[in-house]
Structures are given as C-alpha cells and as structure tokens.
Write a structure and sequence with these properties.
It is found in: Endoplasmic reticulum membrane; Golgi apparatus membrane; Early endosome membrane. This protein is mainly alpha-helical and about 110 residues long. The protein is built from 4 helices and no strands. About 55% of the residues lie in helices and about 0% in strands. The mean pLDDT is about 85.
C-alpha cells in the first residue's frame, strides 16, 4: 500500500514538473517576443527539466499500471489443452429448428 502511494506521488511530481517546464518554455518565448530577440532554442535548464520530468512521469505511470501481459500469444495458448482450444461457449445454441426433426420431439401445447 505504501509503495502505491509513493508511486502516485512520483507520478504527480513528474506531471507537475512537466507542466512547469512547459510553462517556463512559454514564458521564455514571451520574454523573447517582448525584448524582440530571435528564438534559437530553449535554455538548457528547461530542456533538462522537461526530459527528466518526462522519464519520472513514465516511471510513475508504469509502476502504477501493474503487471503487463506477455506480447506473444503463444504464452496464453500453451496452458490450454487441445480439447479446450477450439471451445467457443459464445456459439452454443440450444434452441434451434433441428430439434423439430427429432423423432422424439413433442411440440409444445399452446
């Protein structure tokens, strides 16, 4: 439980730091417009903050997501037997007209 709270805090700190880096970049662009300077790139501190906060946010969200499933589908299929491999319960039909062709069929009395 404590680890989940810590991962939530890491995620929130990463997102807030990422938003701060975006706000700082917007403020830098506004400053350059006011002083009529040409934009050549963002300062290195804003770039580093953006990249580090991106990785912190990714770490936080990946630890909160839980266990991942295997990408290869053969991992799930290896545990099934051959008899259950082609079993599709969603296609079972019990009320069909073939029942009327049976010699033991008694039609319902309405």
């Amino acid at each position: 439980m404590a680890a989940t709270a810590a991962h939530k805090l890491i995620f929130i700190l990463g997102i807030s730091s990422l938003l701060h880096a975006a706000y700082s970049a917007a403020q830098h662009r506004a400053y350059l417009r006011i002083t009529e300077q040409e934009f050549v790139g963002l300062p290195i501190d804003i770039l580093i903050q953006g990249i580090v906060s991106l990785f912190v946010t990714m770490y936080g969200i990946l630890t909160l997501a839980g266990e991942f499933k295997e990408i290869r589908s053969t991992v799930d299929l290896e545990s099934k037997t051959w008899e259950t491999f082609r079993n599709c319960p969603s296609f079972y039909t019990f009320n069909h007209r073939g029942r009327a062709l049976s010699p033991y069929y008694d039609p319902p009395l309405d």
